[in-house]
Amino acid sequence: MDNRYPIGTFKAKESYTKEEIQNLINDIEALPKKVESAIQGMSDDQLDTPYREGGWTVRQVVHHLPDSHMNAYVRMKWTITEDQPRIKAYDEKAWATTPETKLAPSISIDFLKSLHTKWAALMRGLSEGDLSRAFIHPETDKLVKMDRMIGLYAWHGNHHLAHITTLKEKMGWK
Fold first, then answer.
1. Which pLDDT does position 116 carry in this prediction?
2. β-strand partners of 86
3. Does the pTM of the predicted model rise above 0.90?
4. Which pLDDT score, from 0 to 100, does residue 113 have?
5. Could you say which DSSP state residue 135 is in?
6. What CA–CA distance (Å, rounded) separates 97 from 57?
């Protein structure tokens, strides 16, 4: 297994059924509680352990999730309110080292819970037309459709959750 991608890399589908979209939204909505459960009882030393050599610590992973998903939420709002907007990219590695990433992970868990509640409501209210809307990513100049983005972020959350759970397994942490 590649520790960078414990659940494999994201593979977008050409299209998604309504049922698949709903299942992906359910995954996104459930993520905060799963992350909270995964880090429950971890010591500061455990939280400050990288999930792989050269990788982020568990604490950084937990703080990364709302940073990334907040950006995704804003991108979705732009996409349904503007015509093929060119979104803004951000340096996620730099964001993982800003001062608040040293705080208790519970702060980001609380933020993630609120964000995912609002985000899931937004996604559940999207029409078929909204799901086919797209934004332009500045690093690739490619259009990214909304349904693909939902798939990506369901994978993204589970990807980082697996970083935490596989580290715990490997280290024998309960």
1. 98
2. 136
3. yes
4. 98
5. E
6. 11
